[in-house]
Specification:
This protein is an alpha/beta fold and 463 residues long. Helices cover 22% and strands 30% of the residues. Bound molecules: uridine-diphosphate-N-acetylglucosamine and calcium ion.
Length: 463
């Protein structure tokens, strides 16, 4: 049996008060719309159809970046959820049935959908849906049941009678529907309601008139829809809770789970330890035994086995090799590669640079557009001058080089293997292998002159 998925994401999300379309707001680093897509994919749905409308282009790029095979259907005017599904008819094609999800409900899990699929299969029902019993049903559609408990119809909050408003079993906005029935029923939905919209949930009543409607009740948490920033924060809280638990069950120590923030695309190996205040974002990957002290932020970083990231570091788009030590107070910017056993210490910034095995830059240094050879040592206060206001130039330092403290390396520059740069040098010319480069004025010592100088200064100041 072939099941298509239709994800509704055409609405503006007025209540978000944002220029960004609602379904592109991020939760645990992913746009909201990616969550129902992922759940539908996990259920084996094909094709995946996303109904776009408000800022269609932006939603489309975010969708195809993550789900290149998703189909887009355009709803020109947002005249209701029933109309939105109707717009997806062509893209759905010949699938036997359709799973409908809302783009603003990211907490629904595939395991829960599995229960819906199984129950609908067992009952051979034309329509199955999810509901939840909630404390505050404001804003949701209510499921109206007959005296015998049989599901009869959905009534939207704004259309509720006083008695209906008191119903606490609400519609999750998730349906598994026979395709032929669905599109026939949609053609019969009218906008004869408080909002003058075509309501998708009206198909529930049409299904109930024909046969049994399968209703699966799920925990309230899973159906939470994001309508305002308040719900967005609540969704983030639930996602963080799930991500922290799954990290811990996967063998990761979180010394203070409440202050550890993980994006959904982060991957962690066993025996990783994260300290208080660690944020791991994007596609960050940490190998076995990696330790990260907080507060520290890693964005799209790859950290290999046994490496140590110390407190107050910021790492973005960088690769940190085995057993390397980074920080405290280090900044690694995109395209930084630290090979194994490299040490990058406090107040060191590295950008688009490779430090080969065992190289060290431990204090107050900037390395940009550079390569530092195996076991070379970059002294405190050294910087590469990689930029002249127009172009960027490279600095290449061979293996076993010693760069003395407070050196200025003016790129383009090569320093050969085993060379030595005297402290305080401004190096502008290539240094051959094994050479000593001294690029500073020679020291002069004038015995007794200190006292004379002081006298002069006193007179000048009239003291
Ligand atoms: C909807 C349901 C309600 C349910 C609740 C669950 C309807 C009429 N009501 O209400 O029964 O309890 O979800 O969260 O369906 N959208 C379109 N095109 C449109 C209108 C909406 O694509 O013309 C999309 C939105 O982008 C959104 C989703 O459909 O992702 C739901 O729309 P929304 O306006 O948030 O519906 P609710 O009022 O929350
Ligand atoms: Ca909603």
């Amino acid at each position: 049996m072939k099941t298509a998925a239709v994800i509704l994401a055409a609405g503006q999300g007025t209540r978000m008060k944002s220029t960004l379309p609602k379904v592109l707001h991020l939760a645990a680093g992913r746009p909201l719309v990616a969550y129902p897509l992922q759940a539908a994919r996990e259920m084996g749905c094909e094709p995946l159809v996303v109904v776009v409308g408000h800022q269609a282009g932006a939603v489309e790029s975010a969708v195809t970046a993550r789900f290149p095979d998703a189909r887009l259907a355009l709803q020109e005017k947002q005249s209701g959820t029933a109309d939105a599904v109707r717009c997806a008819q062509q893209a759905v094609g010949e699938a036997d049935r359709v799973l409908i999800l809302y783009g603003d409900c990211p907490l629904l899990r595939a395991e829960t959908l599995k229960v819906l699929f199984d129950r609908v299969d067992a009952a051979r029902a034309p329509l199955g849906m999810l509901t939840a019993v909630v404390d505050d049903p404001t804003g949701y559609g209510r499921l109206v049941r007959g005296a015998d408990g049989r599901p009869l119809r959905n009534v939207e909050h704004k259309d509720c009678s006083d008695a209906e408003r008191a119903i606490r079993e609400v519609n999750a906005g998730v349906y598994l529907v026979d395709r032929a029935f669905l599109f026939d029923a949609l053609s019969r939905v009218t906008s004869n309601n408080a909002q003058r919209e075509l309501y998708l949930p009206d198909v529930v009543e049409l299904a109930a008139q024909r046969s049994e409607v399968v209703v699966v009740q799920v925990p309230a948490e899973e159906i939470l829809g994001v309508n305002s920033r308040l719900e967005l924060a609540e969704v983030e809280r639930v996602l963080q809770d799930r991500l922290r638990k799954s990290a811990m069950l996967g063998g990761v120590t979180l010394r203070h789970p409440e202050s550890t923030f993980l994006d959904a695309d982060v991957s962690l190996s066993e025996d990783v330890t994260l300290g208080p205040g660690v944020q791991l974002r994007g596609k960050t990957r940490l190998g076995r035994g990696v330790r990260v002290e907080g507060p520290t932020i890693l964005v799209d970083a790859t950290v290999e086995e046994g490496a140590d990231i110390r407190a107050f570091s910021h790492v973005e788009g960088a690769r940190v090799g085995r057993d390397a030590v980074v920080g405290p107070f280090a900044r690694l910017r995109p395209e930084t590669v630290l090979e194994e056993q490299v040490h990058v210490g406090n107040f060191v910034e590295v950008k688009k640079a490779t430090l080969r095995k065992g190289a060290k830059a431990n204090h107050l240094t900037y390395l940009g557009d550079a390569e530092v050879g195996e076991k070379s040592n970059v002294g405190a206060g050294t910087i590469t001058c990689n930029y002249d206001g127009y172009g960027k130039y490279r600095t290449e330092i061979g293996a076993g080089v010693f760069v003395g403290s407070d050196s200025v390396l003016v790129a383009p520059l090569k320093i050969g293997e085993g060379a030595y740069v005297a402290a305080g040098s401004v190096v502008t010319d290539e240094v051959p292998p094994g050479a000593l480069a001294v690029g500073r004025a020679r020291q002069v010592v004038k015995p007794g002159r200190a006292e004379q100088l002081r006298e002069k200064a006193k007179q000048k100041a009239g003291k």
